[in-house]
Amino acid sequence: MTHVTSNEYLTFILAGQLFGVSVLQVNDVLRSQKTTRTPLAPPTIAGIMNLRGRIVTVIDVRRCLNQPPASDGSGGMSVVVEQNGELFSLIIDAVGDVLTLDEDNIEPIPPTLDASWSAVAAGVYKLPDQLLVTLDVKKLLASAQFYENSLVEGVA
Question: What is the pTM for the complete model shown?
Answer without folding.
Answer: 0.84
